């Protein structure tokens, strides 16, 4: 009988230790920067102050230090300082663009949420209801931090000769004037403190009053929109959230859009989160009416077989379910052309007429396409190329029965005035192997399909596997050099590099993208990988 109290006490001690350990682990996890990988998406508090028709908005679910801590945690030991400095430069440059110094004004009190909204003024002036400018929403760790910031904020700018105007609007104190950091150009600014822990900074009094107006009516602000709430539910997790209206896709995100209004997409909602040394992006883009992307059907096994047939790495690798159908969608046609990575009559004809799936691999100016044996039909290809002046001929190369295409042309005249012989440069070839057909630009590419590579060289990892999107209509992966070239030409990346005060592309090791058609939307999944350099 005496053993029972002893066992009860022992069990209580074990449960207490377990509870303390679990509670300690939870506290450590809540404070850890690694939790940025699994943050559930909820409606940002700052979204209450963003008008529903704002062209562009960005919400961050972290303070100013967690991204730096995360970069240190996942970077290689010898690169931790450089990784944190790169993220820090980007953070400091972003706040400096709004006239704020992060180190002296924000670091001691800033907390989630952090929100930014950009506006464009309505055309005309008399009936204009939307003002151009920007709105910045900053959360505070405590009530005193936000209040002390506003006091120092305007005190510092008053030293630069700012005339302050203090007023009341919707029960809140508003301070406005032309403020600037010392040594910087003054700009119109207005501030308000909401609930003692949320600071609103706007590019003028009118923008700030508009933000306070829409915060009172759910139907007028971003957080109250059913589509916004549904998008958060579908995206699931994220450390940052971006929403762009149709007009902002081309102007601020640099996305090429078709000219006809009925072919242009709707709004875009993006969630970004870190994943190890990668940055994952998940998005939902409203598709134009009557636009449907092809799905993976019975030919899914052929797509996997085509990917498995490659035994050499490629700088660019794309898998398209139905190229002919996607080529007819103006919104995606430029992307398909770039993914195919080939120019010339033969690859253009194959991509434009293939019913899919199609595998496109490229390294430098050498392209390689894989299709089904009967798609497109070789007879139709021959006829189209013959009309373009190309000549088809059989050719045996190391046991491979090929069909090659050439174009006759006269050589340059010789110095002895005798004409050169006709030349017939190779423009492409086709090789059928079982239920697969392969099309290429160079005969040397046959080595990529002839079984294992050189002895001791491991089979290259499929870069599309990391996306985890087997049902995507389009999948595309780029190696480091091509990914850096693509990002360097992308307008938002150029702006981020300008904010950081230097290039951000050096550590980029790869980029992968998948597009999947869902009910009324285009689901976007992307992965940006960072390496050791």
TrEMBL record:
InterPro entries attached to this UniProt entry: DUF3352 (IPR021787)
One Pfam family per UniProt: DUF3352
Entry protein name: DUF3352 domain-containing protein
Source organism phylogeny: Bacteria, Bacillati, Cyanobacteriota, Cyanophyceae, Synechococcales
């Amino acid at each position: 009988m005496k053993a029972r109290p002893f066992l009860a006490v022992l069990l209580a001690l074990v449960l207490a230790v377990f509870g303390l350990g679990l509670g300690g682990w939870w506290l450590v996890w809540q404070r850890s920067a690694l939790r940025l990988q699994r943050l559930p998406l909820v409606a940002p508090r700052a979204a209450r102050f963003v008008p529903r028709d704002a062209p562009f908005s960005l919400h961050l679910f972290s303070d100013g230090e967690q991204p730096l801590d995360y970069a240190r945690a996942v970077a290689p030991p010898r690169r931790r300082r450089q990784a944190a400095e790169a993220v820090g430069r980007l953070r400091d440059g972003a706040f400096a663009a709004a006239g704020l110094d992060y180190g002296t004004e924000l670091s001691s009190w800033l907390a989630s949420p952090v929100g930014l909204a950009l506006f464009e003024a309505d055309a005309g002036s008399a009936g204009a209801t939307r003002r151009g400018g920007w709105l910045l929403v900053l959360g505070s760790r405590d009530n005193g931090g936000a209040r002390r910031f506003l006091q120092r904020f305007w005190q510092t700018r008053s030293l630069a000769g700012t005339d302050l105007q203090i007023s009341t609007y919707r029960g809140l104190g508003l301070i406005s004037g032309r403020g600037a950091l010392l040594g910087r150009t003054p700009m119109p600014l207005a501030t308000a403190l909401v609930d003692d822990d949320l600071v609103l900074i706007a590019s003028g009094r009118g923008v700030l009053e508009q933000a306070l107006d829409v915060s009172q009516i759910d139907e007028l602000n971003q957080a109250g929109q059913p589509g916004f709430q549904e998008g958060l539910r579908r995206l699931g997790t994220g450390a940052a959230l971006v929403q762009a209206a149709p007009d902002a896709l081309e102007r601020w995100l640099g996305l090429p859009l078709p000219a006809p209004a009925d072919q242009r997409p709707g709004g875009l909602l993006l969630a970004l989160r870190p994943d190890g040394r990668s940055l994952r992006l998940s998005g939902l883009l409203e598709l134009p009416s009557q636009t449907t992307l092809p799905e993976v059907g019975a030919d899914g096994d052929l797509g996997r077989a085509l990917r498995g047939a490659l035994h050499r790495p490629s700088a660019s690798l794309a898998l398209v379910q139905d190229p002919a159908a996607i080529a007819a969608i103006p919104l995606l046609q430029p992307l398909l052309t770039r993914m195919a990575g080939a120019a010339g009559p033969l690859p253009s004809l194959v991509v434009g007429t293939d019913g899919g799936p199609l595998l496109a691999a490229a390294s430098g100016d050498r392209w390689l396409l894989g299709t089904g044996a009967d798609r497109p039909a070789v007879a139709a290809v021959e006829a189209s190329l013959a009309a373009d002046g190309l000549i088809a001929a059989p050719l045996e190369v190391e046991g491979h029965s090929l069909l090659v295409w050439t174009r006759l042309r006269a050589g340059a005249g010789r110095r002895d005035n005798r004409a050169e012989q006709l030349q017939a440069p190779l423009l492409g070839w086709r090789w059928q192997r079982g239920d697969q057909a392969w099309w290429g630009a160079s005969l040397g590419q046959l080595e990529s399909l002839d079984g294992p590579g050189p002895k001791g060289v491991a089979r290259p990892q499929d870069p599309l596997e990391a996306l985890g999107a087997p049902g995507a209509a389009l999948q595309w992966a780029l190696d480091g050099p091509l990914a850096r070239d693509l990002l360097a030409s992308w307008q938002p990346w150029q702006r981020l590099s300008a904010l950081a005060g230097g290039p951000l592309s050096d550590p980029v090791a790869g980029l992968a993208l998948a597009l999947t058609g869902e009910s009324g939307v285009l689901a976007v999944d992307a992965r940006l990988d960072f390496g050791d350099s």
